[in-house]
Design goal:
The protein is of the alpha/beta class. The chain has a seven-stranded mixed beta sheet with strand order 1-5-6-7-8-9-10, sandwiched between helices. Strands 14, 15, 16, 19, 20 and 21 form a six-stranded parallel beta sheet that branches. Strand 8 and strand 9 form a beta hairpin. Helix 9 runs parallel beside helix 16, helix 11 packs across helix 12 and helix 15 packs parallel to helix 16. The longest helix is centred in the last third of the chain and has 19 residues. The N terminus is likely disordered.
Length: about 475
C-alpha cells in the first residue's frame, strides 16, 4: 500500500520546484525561437516558482519497488482541502500502475502489461504549478517505457478553493469561449510540421477529444497560457511533443472565473494559500544525541551497515532516528532529492544525529535509461538539496534499482554503493519478516537495504538492533565500513 509523509514548510525555487520535466528520463527539450514550439519533453514547464511555505500538512503519497527487472516508482501530493483533486490523481496513478503490472487484464502479473518490454519502467512524479490564494495546480509526469509513443504523459490537475471543486485544464476556459479557444489552437497547430487539419480535427473536433487531449494547460509568469500535447495527440508521432502558447491579451477574454484567478495567482501570488481546510502542522523531527567519533575497526570487529532508501519521511524517519539513538547505531540514508527539498529539517536531523547522508537521485528513475545530461541533473539537483539542508555535499550515491553502467559513473563524481542484502521490505510490509530477514542473513561487513518510507520497515528496526547488538555487531556508516576494512 502507498504510504504518506507530511511535508513541512519550504520555499522551492524554480530549479527545485519544477523538476519533473527534466528528471523523468525523456529526451531533452528542443528550443524554439517562437512562443509555439516543440514541447519540453517532460511536460508543460512554464517556469513558475512555487512557494511551498504556504502549504501546511500536505501529504506525499509515494510507493516504489526495488525490482530491477520491473522498476516502478510513483508519487503524488495530497493537499488538505483538495480531496477531490487528490482522488483524481490517486485514480490515475493506481490505474497506470495496474496497467504496467498487468493487473488490469487479470492472470499472473506481467511487468509492462501483456506484452512486456526489454526495458520496462514506470515513473510517476509531480510538481506544483500554483499554490496560492484559493488556487492549487499540480502536474503529474508519467514515464512509461512500455508505451507505444515516447512513453511520456503529462497532465495538470486544478483545484478551485472558492467553489471547493476539482477542475481539469479545460476548466480554465469559460464554457462560452471553448470554441473560440480551440479554433485559435487549431490555427496555431496546423502550421506545424507533422500536423494536418485532419489530425487536429480528430483530436479536438469533439468534446470527448478536448477533454482527453487538453489535459496539460498552465500559465507562464507573464500570464500567457501554455498548452502542452503528448506525442501523437494532435500530430503525427514523428512531430514529437507539441505546445502552443497563447498570449495573455488573446486568452484573457476567454478565461473562466477560475481561470482568471489561476492566472492572477500565477503572475502575482498571494502571501497566503487557503483552500478552506483545517490547518495542520507537520510533526517535528528532532535530532538525537550524536554518538560522536566512531572508533570501530571493522577489520577486527563485526560491523554491519544499515542503509535506508527513498526518504526522508515524516514521521517514520523521526521514529527511526530515536530507535538508532537507543543503541548508538549509525546508519546511511540514501535520500531522494524531491523528498529532501520537501523535508530539509529531517535530513538536517539525520546529519546532526551522527548519520551519513547520500544521494539516491531526484525522483527515483532508472539512471541507465537516461542521457548523460539527465543523469547529471538527477545527481546535481539532489546534491544541492542535501547541501542546502545539511551544509555538506554527499560523497556516496545509490542508483535506484542498483542500475549502473559506465555512463552513470561518468555523470557524477560520487562513489556508487549497492548492497549485500535486500530485505524486500516493499513487498512484505511485515515488521517481523523484515527483522527476521536481516537477523537470519546478516554477515560481518554486510550493507543492508531497508526503506524508511515504510512504517512497517521502521517498526522492524528495534528487533534488528537488539538482536544483532547481542551478537556483537557494530552498526556503522558505509563510509566508515569502507575506510576501516
Amino acid at each position: 500500500m502507498p504510504r504518506r509523509t507530511v511535508a513541512p514548510v519550504l520555499l522551492i525555487l524554480g530549479s527545485l520546484a519544477l523538476t519533473a520535466a527534466c528528471s523523468t528520463g525523456s529526451p531533452p527539450a528542443d528550443s524554439a525561437p517562437s512562443p509555439d514550439g516543440p514541447s519540453r519533453a517532460g511536460g508543460n514547464d512554464t517556469g513558475t516558482q512555487v512557494d511551498l511555505t504556504k502549504l501546511k500538512g500536505v501529504n506525499i503519497v509515494s510507493d516504489s519497488s526495488t525490482d530491477r527487472s520491473c522498476p516502478w516508482a510513483t508519487s503524488y501530493p495530497d493537499v488538505p482541502g483538495a480531496d477531490a483533486m487528490t482522488a483524481a490523481m490517486k485514480k490515475q496513478v493506481e490505474g497506470r500502475l495496474a496497467v504496467f503490472l498487468g493487473e488490469d487484464i487479470g492472470g499472473p502479473p506481467s511487468c509492462g502489461g501483456a506484452d512486456g518490454s526489454e526495458r520496462p519502467e514506470l515513473n510517476i512524479s509531480f510538481s506544483f504549478v500554483v499554490a496560492s490564494g484559493d488556487v492549487l495546480g499540480v502536474r503529474l509526469t508519467t514515464v512509461d517505457r512500455t508505451s507505444n509513443a515516447d512513453g511520456v504523459d503529462t497532465r495538470a490537475y486544478w483545484y478551485d478553493g472558492a467553489a471547493k471543486e476539482y477542475r481539469t485544464s479545460p476548466g480554465l476556459i469559460a464554457d462560452h469561449s471553448q470554441d473560440a479557444f480551440v479554433s485559435a489552437l487549431k490555427k496555431r497547430l496546423e502550421k506545424r510540421e507533422g500536423v494536418t487539419p485532419d489530425t487536429v480535427e480528430a483530436a479536438l473536433g469533439d468534446q470527448e477529444g478536448r477533454d482527453a487531449y487538453l489535459d496539460d494547460m498552465a500559465f507562464t509568469p507573464a500570464g500567457d497560457l501554455k498548452v502542452d500535447f503528448d506525442r501523437g495527440a494532435v500530430g503525427l508521432p514523428p512531430a514529437g511533443r507539441l505546445s502552443v502558447t497563447l498570449p495573455k491579451a488573446t486568452v484573457t477574454p476567454w478565461l473562466s472565473d477560475f481561470g482568471d484567478r489561476a492566472r492572477k495567482q500565477t503572475t502575482d501570488p498571494d502571501d497566503k494559500f487557503d483552500l478552506g481546510a483545517a490547518q495542520t502542522s507537520a510533526p517535528s523531527v528532532s535530532a538525537q544525541p550524536d554518538p560522536g567519533a566512531d572508533g570501530t575497526d571493522c577489520s577486527k570487529a563485526k560491523c554491519i551497515a544499515l542503509t535506508f532508501d527513498d526518504g526522508p519521511a515524516v514521521p517514520e524517519t523521526g521514529t527511526l532516528l530515536k530507535y538508532l539513538a537507543q543503541y548508538k547505531a549509525r546508519a546511511t540514508f540514501f535520500v531522494v532529492g524531491q523528498n529532501v527539498a520537501t523535508h530539509p529539517e529531517v535530513v538536517r536531523a539525520e546529519k546532526l544525529s551522527g548519520h551519513e547522508i547520500a544521494n539516491h537521485s531526484w525522483n527515483h528513475p532508472v539512471l541507465t535509461h537516461l542521457t548523460p545530461a539527465q543523469i547529471h541533473s538527477q545527481m546535481e539537483r539532489t546534491d544541492a538539496a542535501i547541501k542546502a539542508a545539511t551544509g555538506e555535499e554527499p560523497r556516496l550515491f545509490r542508483p535506484p534499482y542498483g542500475a549502473i553502467d559506465d555512463k552513470v559513473r561518468a555523470a557524477t563524481s560520487l562513489s556508487p554503493v549497492l548492497w549485500d542484502m535486500d530485505t524486500l521490505d516493499w513487498k512484505s510490509h511485515d515488521p517481523a519478516e523484515v527483522a527476521q530477514t536481516v537477523i537470519s542473513q546478516a554477515e560481518p561487513n554486510d550493507v543492508v537495504l531497508i526503506h524508511d518510507i515504510h512504517p512497517t520497515s521502521v517498526a522492524a528496526v528495534p528487533e534488528i538492533l537488539r538482536t544483532l547488538t547481542a551478537q556483537g555487531y557494530h552498526f556503522v556508516t558505509v563510509s566508515h565500513l569502507r575506510a576501516t576494512l
